[in-house]
């Protein structure tokens, strides 16, 4: 059985300990989300452009075309072409 004094000491000890989930203010002010987003984009591009993934995708698409199940999604193709064109154009001076 735990005495009231031990319970009180235990609860005071817990109150005096810093919250381990709290993030220091210095860390929050030094975070740069643009760098993180850029790194994630680079990692995603690396993963999706890996040769083994491309080979699996090519194999899948060949099977879909051979079996007549592949549907051309012209709206998605048009969106990607426009996106590519916008990204590849130099910015006006």
UniProtKB/TrEMBL annotation:
InterPro entries: Anti-sigma-28_factor_FlgM_sf (IPR035890), FlgM (IPR007412), FlgM_C (IPR031316). Residues 31-83 form the Anti-sigma-28 factor FlgM C-terminal domain. Keywords: Bacterial flagellum biogenesis, Cell projection, Cilium, Flagellum, Repressor, Transcription, Transcription regulation. Residues 1-26 are annotated as: Disordered. SUPFAM superfamilies: Anti-sigma factor FlgM. Residues 9-20 have a biased composition (Polar residues). One of its GO terms (biological process) is bacterial-type flagellum organization. Responsible for the coupling of flagellin expression to flagellar assembly by preventing expression of the flagellin genes when a component of the middle class of proteins is defective. It negatively regulates flagellar genes by inhibiting the activity of FliA by directly binding to FliA. Belongs to the FlgM family. NCBIfam families: FlgM_jcvi. This is Negative regulator of flagellin synthesis.
């Amino acid at each position: 059985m735990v005495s009231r004094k031990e319970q009180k000491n235990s609860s005071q000890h817990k109150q005096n300990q810093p919250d381990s989930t709290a993030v220091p203010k210095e860390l929050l002010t030094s975070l740069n989300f643009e760098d993180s987003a850029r790194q994630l984009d680079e990692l995603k591009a690396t993963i999706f452009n890996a040769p083994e993934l491309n080979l699996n995708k090519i194999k899948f698409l060949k099977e879909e075309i051979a079996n007549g199940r592949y549907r051309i999604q012209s709206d998605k193709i048009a969106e990607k072409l426009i996106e590519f064109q916008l990204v590849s154009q130099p910015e006006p001076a």
